Amino acid sequence: MTAGKTALILGGGVGGLVTAHTLLRVASDSKVTLIDREREHLFAPSLLWLLIGDRRPEAIKRPLSRLERKGIRVVTGEIEQIDPQRRTVRVNGQELGGDALVITLGAELAPQKIPGLQEAGCNLYTLEGVKLARDALHRLQEGRIVVLTAVPAYKCPAAPYEAAMLAEYDCRRRKVRAKVEIDVYAAEPGPMGVAGPEVSGAVKQALTQKGITYHPSHQVVHVDAENRTLHFENGASAHFDLLIYVPPHQAPAVVRNARLCGESGWMATDRHTLETAHSGVYAFGDVVSIPLQIGKPLPKAGVFAHHQAEVVARNIAASFSGRTPTARFAGFGECFLEMGDGQAALGRGNFYGEPSPQVAMRKPSRFLHWGKVLFEKDWLRRWF
Using an 8 Å Cβ cutoff, are 169 and 177 in contact? Predict the structure, then answer.
């Protein structure tokens, strides 16, 4: 019987929300506690629309307290310590424990790892950073926009390329495109490389068609904020008038302090069940690194966290009731790519495919753009 058994979920992002809701649906007599430092859930995919003024910040946030109405206990506070052997955490000076512990704390953004980056640009992965970029973009009448990926691997691999294309679209509709140059400087050798050459090539072609210059394999080492100049490992440099960047990532400090990170710098977990080496402890989403046969990790993306959360919830429910857990994450995922002009493309496939991921790209269309809009609306309605 699951009665009286508790799942402790760390993180109120995609993974935490889906785990909590799915577990209560398949094991209604279980108890769920969700812990997050923030009081509100931010629907991060919509930050791209916020960038060009097509969304308001309040429209893409929801208070986590609403989950209480659905039977989910919500604790707001900084997680100070994790004890995986006892399946306990300390938050706000209080110890909480569970029969299952789910770690889905995401990735910690670390722009400070690149000298001058924080002072010089706008962080594409934070609400405040995107608001700053939106305002600067709206003021820009001429000059050079640079979208930068500061490291080769980061969450939401499509986002910087979408940001560049949406900025280009915004400049056209404001009738300043002729006076604005747009460049993407990427630490990686190609866009969305894990998805394979077809997808990567399609994204590069889309950038070229929009007059966006792509500079792959440019690892930034220093940013001169005063002179608005990027300096790269290969000796190159680049001037900018507006810098929008994807920062380096690292595992959250509380995870690192608990010695839960492996050689990759991230948590290790079973690629199918998301179980860790500790009994009753699961980890998934951006906080883990799952190696693929091609030598690269599974991309960090919300779609994978969503599917992984469903697997984890079903297996926790099974273990609570004494049944053998059978749910498995198979590596399938999909991602919309906003192209501007009210169009989006869609990449979809099996990232666990061997010898390499088997991913195909659907051509951009208004239908797919509206598919993403409907997904946004459904997400904010369904979970809250």
Answer: no
